[in-house]
Write a structure and sequence with these properties.
3-stranded mixed β-sheet, alpha/beta, 5-stranded mixed β-sheet, 28% helix
């Protein structure tokens, strides 16, 4: 018996219709909350805090609203930026001699910026990349005691 895969192939042919960046990131934040019990809260960066005006700041909040770390999301391609998606720690989280240092993480993507009146739409591959990089942040937002 042969399966009809035409509906699935149609979905994969135009998946970006289903993945506007803002809505997708809100869904990822919900998944992270359900899996790990932390919330991602968008915060307005202070002047000079980011290296590009499109960089977004997300604070990682624990159950009681306590700040657990910060994630900077650099979503869009630009000439001065590398082409690979990546995540990296700017500062690891730790407690040493009673002093707590919160982790700071950067997620870089190379998505096309939105056009006038239209959001950035993720391809199926882009969506997988965002999920992969966001998933890696869970391990990076823990604070180690020395």
């Amino acid at each position: 018996m042969q399966r009809d895969t035409s509906a699935a192939q149609g979905l994969l042919a135009k998946p970006s219709e289903y993945f506007p960046l803002g809505r997708f990131m809100a869904g990822v934040a919900d998944v992270i909350h359900n899996l790990f019990g932390v919330r991602l809260a968008a915060r307005v960066p202070q002047p000079g805090e980011t290296w590009d005006p499109h960089v977004r700041r997300l604070d990682v909040l624990g159950d009681g609203g306590d700040l657990m770390g910060t994630i900077y999301v650099d979503p869009y391609t630009r000439p001065s930026k590398g082409y690979d998606a990546a995540h990296f720690a700017v500062q690891g989280g730790c407690v040493r001699e009673g002093l707590k240092q919160l982790p700071i993480i950067v997620l870089c993507f190379n998505l096309e910026p939105p056009t006038t009146g239209a959001p950035t739409l993720l391809s199926f591959s882009d969506a997988g990349t965002v999920l992969h990089e966001m998933g890696a942040t869970h391990a990076r937002t823990h604070t180690v005691t020395y």
